[in-house]
Amino acid sequence: MDLTDPVVGILLAGGRSSRMGGGDKCLRPLAGRPILAHIIERLKPQVCDMIINANGDVARFASFGLPVVADSVAGYAGPLAGVHAGLQWVRANRPDIRYAVTIAADTPFFPSDLVQRFLAELAHHPTLLVARSEEGVHPVVGLWPVTLAGDLEDSLKEGMRKVGSFTEEHGAVEVSFPPVKVGGRPIDPFFNINRPEDLAEAEALVKEHCP
Question: What's the confidence (pLDDT) of residue 77?
Fold first, then answer.
């Protein structure tokens, strides 16, 4: 596997954000900018293209200048439907691309070498890859062969909704990532902002990192 193999980034922003009080939590401010802006900035050097998966009015994401792709599965089907929508977009718009990386749009501290490490692992395990940290497996963060779009569609039609169930069923290989340092402190690289207190913690970390 060529470590320069182009990869499309799929930013999963379709969550209901119920623990954050509703709305688009990825648009909430972190250090003066939307959380999503931090995600885009971190992922941009690692991929050849990016898309946002979200439902509803696309105008709210206009300032980011990226394609917004809605779920093709009716009703709220969770992040697995978002992965499916992203892979469908890649297959239709970038047929030259073989892999896409998925990132939850509430994980602002993911590794700056995430894609490179995934691609390196493909040399040994040319299959679906998912991230693991000391806190466990993070199936929403993964490197997906675009050829899985059809299997994903079939699974969704059969009622599957959990990303972890799909990745386990397809023998995904786990790639381990060590803690990252933010503000001089080691934290889980896939720290995600689910609740107001998580956002407050992320804000404190960023301020410590860039006082």
Answer: 80
